[in-house]
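Lab intake sheet, docking and co-folding queue.

SAMPLE TYPE: protein with bound small molecule
LIGAND NAME: pyridoxal-5'-phosphate
LIGAND FORMAT: SMILES
REQUESTED OUTPUT: full 3D complex as structure tokens
PRIORITY: normal
SUBMITTED BY: R.K., bench team

The fields below were copied directly from the construct record.
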Amino acid sequence: MTTPEFLDLLSETAHLDSDGEVVMGGCRLSALAASYGTPLFVVDETSLRHQAQRFHRGLQERWPKSRAVFASKAFPCTAMYELMAQEGLGVDVAGGGELVLALNGGVDPALMVMHGNAKTDVELSMAVDAGVGTIVIDNFDDIDRLEKLVTADQGVLVRVVPGVRGVTHDAMSTGQEGSKFGLSHDDAVNAIRRLQQSDHLRLDGLHMHIGSQILETEPFAHAVEVLANYGDFDVYDLGGGLGVRYTYSDVAPTPEAWLDALVSAAKRSLPRHAELLIEPGRAMVAQSMVTLYRVTTVKHGVPTFVAVDGGMADNLDVSLYGQRYEATIVNKVGGGASVDLVGRHCESGDCLIHGVELNDPSIGDIVAVGVTGAYAFTMLNNYNGALKPAVVFVADGKADLRVRRENYGDFFLRDVASGAEVTNYG
Ligand SMILES: Cc1ncc(COP(=O)(O)O)c(C=O)c1O
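RESULT FIELD (auto-filled):
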């Protein structure tokens, strides 16, 4: 590995200080680890804002009647909702919890899109009461439920299964026939007919989302063309799914290449008067973050295990999808022997990276794992009593703590003393 290779994976402000240490947002990573503890999520705010505009403005330049919506499941914290709202983006919320977070983060409900394949009555009434602009119909039960709830005009889209499969992990593929999300052709046609006769549900158009971490643009373009088979509508939400470059060998399309593919397909097949929406999550946030860990143990052997103070409690992507990452010691970038970077959790599967080159790893070293901005915060857990990490936004040499690190006292916040709330069902 050469020095620039690791930096190439990171966000635009990342560079090496004169002594060779990695700096992000003008902050030395070891200084952040010392102040906030590890594991630590460090978010490059400037890059994040640029990325939001690459999608938002990039889409509007190509198709003026359009807007970008952040798929907030990729990083659902208040700071992120606030940032997206400031940048003028809407957000996609999957269920009541993300809706509450988005409202708290100041997102205009009119710019929200609510998703879910198992929306409850409560979640749908929360969305209607909050004034969520668009609710995506995933099944006939959504229609039944909304028709009982809605007394004024409510915009909806029908999520269709385009029958397109991009290359990605099975668990992340959602556009193929047999997917649990959306309606296949005949059901979608029936749902569209039903909604066209609804008193209060205003069918604005169609939605599709073919999956996540897809590293080629063709499947997206193909799926857009499939939407044309359903007739003319005012709105087409083309979903998210653009993959990102996690490893030195990954090749990911740029946001611009993805937008070119989507919009060219839309120009070929969708009505010119329509509004286009996109919902990127992963590609919006992944590159802007690194996770910092402290080395706790080095066990020499074959392989050599370098163990850190985090692991699958703060990054489940490896266990769930086998996602490969890259890493460096923040002040010894480049070179070194291949080791297994492992976490502190009680299973052998808790390996952050198999076979990563680290330069003379020693106890106390700070290791940065790159490109962790998507879904890591989302899937945090307390396995083995792990404390959820702090989130710090960095920009122009300033660090802004946006989520404090969990403390052991937080573990008891939901406990109820025995006998304090007893219900008799006998
Ligand atoms: C409906 C919908 N839209 C957008 C996304 C965002 O996908 P990605 O993070 O891959 O861009 C998802 C993620 O699963 C989704 O379910």
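REVIEWER NOTE: The radius of gyration is 23 Å.
SIGN-OFF: pending second check by T.M.
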